[in-house]
Amino acid sequence: MDKSTFEERKVVINGSMHGSLRHDSAHKHVTGTADYIDDIPEPAGLLHGALGLSDRAHAEIAGIDLSAVRAYPGVVWVFTGADVPGVNDTSSNGMHDEPLLAETKAEFHGQPIFAVIAETRDAARRAARLAKIDYRDLPHWSDIDGALANGGPLVYEPMTLKRGEPETEMANAKHRIKAQMRIGGQEHFYLESHIAMAIPGEDDEVAVWSSTQHPSEIQHIVGHVLGIPSNAVTVNVRRMGGGFGGKETQGNQFAALAAVAAKKLGRAVKFRPDRDEDMSATGKRHDFLVDYEVGFDDDGRIHAVDATYAARCGFSSDLSGPVTDRALFHADSSYFYPHVHLVSKPLKTHTVSNTAFRGFGGPQGMVGGERMIEEIAYALGKDPLEIRRANFYGQPGSGRTLTPYHQEVTDNIINRIVDELEQTSDYQARRKAIIEFNRSSRFIRKGIALTPVKFGISFTMTAFNQAGALVHVYQDGSIHLNHGGTEMGQGLYTKVAQVLADSFQVDIDRVKITATTTGKVPNTSATAASSGSDLNGMAAFDAGRQIKERLVAFAVEKWGVGAEEVQFLPNRVRVGDTEIPFPDFIKQAYFARVQLSAAGFYKTPKIHWDRKAGRGTPFYYFSYGAACSEVSIDTLTGEYLIDRADILHDVGRSLNPAIDIGQVEGAFVQGMGWLTTEELWWDAKGRLRTHAPSTYKIPLASDRPKIFNVRLAEWSENTEATVGRSKAVGEPPFMLPISVLEALSMAVASIADYRVCPRLDAPATPERVLMAVERLKGM
Questions:
Q1: Please, which residues bridge with residue 9 across strands?
Q2: Nearest to 735 by CA among 382, 178, 181, 285
Q3: Aldehyde oxidase/xanthine dehydrogenase a/b hammerhead domain location, by residue (predicted)?
Q4: pLDDT score recorded for residue 220
Q5: Is pLDDT of 10 > 50?
Q6: pLDDT value, residue 15
Q7: pLDDT confidence of 17, banded at 50, 70, 90?
Q8: How far is CA 335 from CA 174, 301, 453, in A?
Q9: Of the candidates 58, 66, 61, which has an alpha carbon nearest to the alpha carbon of residue 109?
Q10: Where is 258: in which H helix or E strand?
């Protein structure tokens, strides 16, 4: 192989959108040189903000004395909701139920009531504790049971999904089980807490640096609160230190507070709460109470399902409507329900308003669906995998492809995924060995489970499924890329740059990835719903297509060749028999006055949704996966180890296998934490007591499975026209560790010889495992 051939292969690999390129900031992450908002050199005269928080769960605010706060050394300004120049509201859905600063009523312990602006962060925080607030306490409830006992107040209109005749067909089922499951919430625990810095400009202008997944919403909310148009607000986001959904709407208040103070005082202002304040004042994953009834036959095939998914939503609506909707969308997991009735209950509680979290309600819905499979398996004395197979969605024409929301599942590969993983994980032999081990082991019991994932991809609000991108090609052949997606460590910037480099057939280092800003790409959607690469990659591809079409037209005219004779090759362009280096070709195009800039746009096709009717096609396609997990529990303490996990996950034709595998591994560990160790707890006064690492336990590196085998389904290719025929990877693998919960359940079930479903609630903490073991000992 000569040098030129080697160099050509190197360029193709570096520019490929299917290559395992490193994350663009990986070296900066590990060396500490990646700039986050708190690393930006502080502007001259920077002020710092702190929050004054409610210490009541539900009370009228009878009076506020802030004189001691104002008198504290270094304090520049103290303001309340009455000082907001525009509208004192940061709600993201137009329901106007989330004040920036509470004025007349405190609706959860930790709700911001006032803000302090001071010369130093320490002074602002110390001063904020000196307020004297008089309250008239009101009745409060902080959990689902309390909400139901008080009439079940809702923050959003519930949704119903129905197909078939579940009312009558449930009675016709050979077997019926009716039970309940509790599914806990989860703190996002991003490494970088919420933070925002605002710098005032001339006239009504303000620039905001925010750790947010939704710059356009920050722009809108800041304009709303200040009473100025969106064109006066510029929001910038280079990267976040994690988001996981917690920065989709919850950054609104910090950005708005910083902007209000900056415009009032004419100085830059930064808000950065500490971990305790961040955990107390910002929303979390919704916890659910699932009441379910399932009818089935002797073979374990489901005949009818009736389930209600009640959620703790907090004091305001936030994203609770869409979150509980998506829980219903995934209550079927990977299974066909011939007759089904599903209802959501987005309940109001006097706690912080819960919000988006990786999976967006889908994991809670799926856990409920898998519990029903587990119930059937233990009732019939069968392997749960056998029951899963009996109920999987079928292929087109099977009569088993219609979801509860009346969308046809036309791309089903779950059988192949599960079959392949069953073989590669040696599931059957290991399950047999585990059952044998449990017969003779006195204190240690083992469990194994293989569970599937089917996850719908798209925002269920159809309008959000759009994206824009801005691409400039400069005279020297370098390329500038900007789009509406945000980077929170998931590798989105790298993937979209790969798409563009592949389009022009240039080396990836020719593409400059620039910070997301509302000043370049307007009206963007949140980087959420696993749609970042799908939407922004296609928008960037569209921008590149426009520029390439102009370049081809230029070459046709200049060289007198047909369009088919113009080819973009690695780092060069072939025009007829002539090959021109890419930079030289671009320089010639510039002198011929070819426009070398384009705004790309993409909207997801085929999707539509009628929420009121409970019918439509809310998802463009489905992502699939499966995991097989093995655990060991100590029946004396309830403690356990994750011995092994084998994963096979579907990302279509991967845009970047290295990044995608990392996403699968991270999602599995994060989901495992949700289902095992991460427990949120409020006391009788409505105070969140698990508000710091000392009391809230995320999984550590030592908690990962001791044997951890992760593979992508390399044979898979998206049947829909996505970018590079890839599939989303952000959220779907989060549900793979349901296999861990199911494996723990099997280990506990061995106490009663697998005759009883242990009905482990989530999170399955060691305490819950121990209580389940003790309960089954008496059976």
A1: none
A2: 285
A3: 31-139
A4: 98
A5: no
A6: 52
A7: confident
A8: 19, 10, 10
A9: 58
A10: helix 252-265
**Cβ atoms within 10 Å, residue 483:** 30
Q: Which neighbouring-strand residues pair with 511?
A: 479
Residue at 119: amino acid letter: E
Q: Where are the alpha helices (DSSP H) in 725-765?
A: 738-749
DSSP string, 353-406: PP---TTTTHHHHHHHHHHHHHHHHHHHT--HHHHHHHHB---TTSS--B-TTS
- Beta-bridge partner residues of 133: 64
Whole-angstrom CA distances from 501 to 176, 448, 506, 538, 601 are 57, 44, 5, 13, 18
Is the pLDDT reported for residue 9 higher than 50?
no
- Round to whole Å and give the CA distance between 527 and 217: 11
DSSP string across 602-650? EE--S-EEETTTTEEE--SEEEEEEEEEEEEEETTT--EEEEEEEEEE-
Closest CA to 306 of 170, 144, 159: 170
Backbone angles phi, psi at 290, to 5 degrees: -110, 120
- Of the candidates 68, 67, 89, 70, the one whose C-alpha atom is nearest the C-alpha of residue 78 is 70
295 close to 167: Cβ distance less than 8 angstroms: no
Q: How many CB atoms lie within 10 A of CB 16?
A: 18
Average pLDDT for the chain: 96
The residue among 398, 369, 617, 655 whose CA lies nearest residue 534 is 655
Report the run of H or E that residue 79 belongs to, with start and end: strand 75-80
3-state DSSP assignment of residue 129: coil
Six token digits for residue 668: 């599995």
Contacts of 133 (CB under 8 A, 6+ apart): 54, 55, 61, 63, 64, 65, 113
666 class by beta-carbon count within 10 Å (0-12 exposed, 13-18 middle, 19+ buried) = middle
Apex CA 252: angle with CA 97 and CA 686, to 5°?
55
- DSSP labels, 506-572: --GGGEEE--EETTTS-SPPPS-TT-HHHHHHHHHHHHHHHHHHHHHHHHHHHHT--GGGEEEETTE
Name the residue among 778, 767, 764, 744 with its Cα closest to residue 374. Answer: 744
In angstroms, rounded to a whole number, what is the distance separating the alpha carbons of residues 190 and 210? Answer: 14
**What is the 8-class DSSP label of residue 285?**
B
Closest CA to 294 of 387, 393, 186, 190: 387
Query: How many other C-beta atoms can be found within 10 angstroms of the C-beta atom of residue 65?
Result: 11
Burial of 164 (0-12, 13-18, 19+ CB in 10 A): middle
What is the helix (H) or strand (E) element at residue 676, kind and residue range? helix 657-676
Q: Point out which residues pair with 445 in neighbouring strands.
A: 633
Kindly report the backbone phi and psi dihedral angles of residue 143, in degrees, each rounded to the nearest multiple of 5, phi listed first.
Answer: -135, 175
Distance of CA 625 to the CA centre of its chain: 17
Q: Which residues are catalytic?
A: 731
**Three-state secondary-structure class, residue 247:** coil
Provide the pLDDT confidence category of residue 14 given band limits of 50, 70 and 90.
low
Query: Token digits for 553?
Result: 């037209």
Q: Are the CB atoms for 321 and 346 separated by under 8 Å?
A: yes
Q: What is this structure's pTM?
A: 0.96
CB 727 within 8 A of CB 716: yes
